Predict the 3D structure of the following.
Amino acid sequence: MIANVIRTFKKLDNKDFRVLTGIELGMKNFEWVPVEEVQKFTKYPYGALQNKFRLLMKDNLVIRTILPYEGYQIYFDGYDALALNTLVKRGTISAIGDEIGVGKESVVYEAIKEPELAMGKMTPVIIKFHREGRTSFTQVKRIREHLADKEHFSWIYAARLSAKREYEIMEMLYPEVSIPKPIDHNRHALVMAIAKGSLLAKTRLLKPEWFLHEIISQIRMTYSLGVIHADLSEYNIFVYECGVQFIDWPQYVNLDHPQADELLKRDVFNVLAFFKRKYGIEMDVDDVVSGIKDGI
């Protein structure tokens, strides 16, 4: 839990972060990183290293095995601490607040970004921690195109790649597509502006037809840039007085994806099904998809 990370974060020193980094790097090649590998990276005496391991395990930042050899893994709290340390040092965030969203593959918190100028105001942002691979590597590998050809990967690798992938596509789409502004990312953490308005699934619209056409317009714009969201629904669309914003992009595909047409149709179907169910508005899925492809 992030509360534990924040509480622990204040007492961690550079040596603690060096040990965590040594385990992180070792997990590229080992399921359980041998003590010798961490010692080789940190260059700490064995006794001092054991003391660090003991304290990090006590704070639930790392976990240990002794069979078939003594080895260590970073726990999610440890990876959160590494990402937060980098983002704080960069000045991307200065404080982290309440949890505002949680799913099977991510958790989202409020945060504060320091002003770039001393006289400026602090900016509220959100920080999204990717959690891909936490429960099932096989399931994540099956549904994530960017992991399909990887023979060996840890949850660190899966979560890190997912955050990098989402950040890069958001940078490419912003500001042409209406999405929260991407600000920074490190490891499995992504910092972005707060989405405008409220979640479509939890909002009663006074002009549903107008918002439906705005959503279709944004799908069309995204498609014109060669991208399909591939996981669009009322649960990752925000609505506000002047428009809409799309969130959650790690499953996006390009137009050359073998299932691009199917995924586009599914996105459109999900949106139309919601507006039919909640507002009684009916539109033909195939007609809408054809208009998106034709740019009309």
Q: What stands out?
A: The longest helix spans residues 260-279. The chain has three domains: 2-77, 93-193, 198-294.
